[in-house]
Design brief:
CATH class of the largest domain: Alpha Beta
Helix content: 10-25%
CATH architecture of the largest domain: 3-Layer(aba) Sandwich
């Protein structure tokens, strides 16, 4: 399945609202089958036969969204300037996520239906990205699939995931492995599932959010990529068959926490891998949960138990490496050698 950055008209260059669609469209999102009244940032799924979707995004009349929500406020996310990005209410009627300038989303109990009330002035391309990102991650969490904020690839030695704080280069690391023959599993959020033979990472979308420098120097992309969304410098790269995508869950061999450093200031340029204790690993995974600020109190215990099982089955290691594209070959080779031990 290929992915289209915008899948319509000239809007992907202007960042304007996507053309409306008259009928719901089917998509594959994080390995799940989703029916949506909104365009998502991936190509539609062609089904050979009708089936029940794993969940549905349903367009609702904006005027019908409740002005005041009865459910208690459980989380509030603000940007670095203090402005509200989103607020979340949760209770017996489900979970409500309100983005002031974009939409209000209502995840019904059971997480099989999501009602979406778009703001009239909202950008529907941005809304599609949010539905395929944050909202789908919250749905997966309620369905019992925790998600790590991670990039992951499938190598000849198995799947590996890369964690790290903003700026550590998760997408760049994944891109460097793609260029060397690995298949992309996910670029941003890694859904997890526990099986008898190990812990598996599920696929996301066959697309990546890249800085222009990574697109040019790591993937050798010559064309101008569409902007991810207005006022965001990252670009959206659709694999479109140019690089491999893993459409099925893959068993995790290891998780690497990225520690990128400046060799000039540190006085060395070696590549080091150090395994974390299970306690350290557990703390790291909890901190790197996708949208951890929106984890509800009732979900915390389940996450803790899941990660406790994960770290007993999958090693979590710190990968320290010098910054700069010149070191990518050596870093990839070091990781692959580590997986063979």
């Amino acid at each position: 399945m290929a992915v289209s950055a915008c899948a319509t008209c000239d809007d992907r260059e202007r960042g304007e609202a996507i053309c409306g669609q008259a009928e719901p469209v089917w998509y594959s999102v994080y390995g799940m089958t989703v029916r949506s009244d909104f365009r998502l940032p991936t190509s539609p799924l062609i089904l050979s036969e009708e089936k029940a979707p794993d969940w549905v995004f349903r367009r609702m009349e904006t005027a019908s969204v409740p002005a005041q929500l009865d459910e208690p406020l459980v989380a509030e996310v603000r940007c670095q300037h203090g402005n509200i990005i989103c607020v979340m209410h949760a209770g017996p009627t489900g979970t409500w996520i309100r983005h002031p300038s974009l939409a209000t989303c209502h995840i019904h109990p059971g997480a099989r239906h999501v009602d979406v009330y778009p703001e009239p002035s909202g950008n529907e391309r941005t809304l599609g990205l949010m539905l395929a990102g944050q909202i789908s991650i919250l749905v997966l969490r309620e369905l019992g699939y925790p998600c790590l904020h991670a990039s992951a690839v499938v190598t000849g030695q198995g799947a590996v995931a890369f964690l790290g704080t903003h700026g550590q280069g998760k997408s760049t690391m994944a891109a460097s492995f793609l260029r060397r023959g690995a298949a992309l599993l996910t670029d941003d959020a890694l859904p997890l599932l526990m099986r008898e033979d190990g812990v598996y990472g599920g696929p996301a979308l066959p697309a990546m959010k890249l800085w222009n420098e990574t697109a040019v120097h790591t993937l050798d992309l010559a064309e101008e990529l569409p902007q991810l969304m207005p006022n965001v410098d990252k670009k959206l790269f659709a694999l479109d068959g140019r690089y491999a995508f893993a459409p099925e869950p893959a068993r995790l061999r290891a998780i690497y926490v990225l520690d990128r450093y400046d060799p000039l200031s540190c006085g060395h340029d070696d590549i080091r891998i150090e395994e974390l204790s299970q306690r350290e690993s557990l703390t790291t995974l909890l901190a790197q949960t996708s949208w951890s600020s929106l984890v509800q109190p009732a979900q915390s215990a389940a996450l803790f138990m899941f990660y406790a099982r994960l770290v007993s089955r999958v090693p979590v290691r710190v990968l320290s490496f010098p910054n700069g594209h010149h070191s990518q070959d050596a870093v990839c080779a070091r990781v692959l050698a580590d997986l063979e031990v």
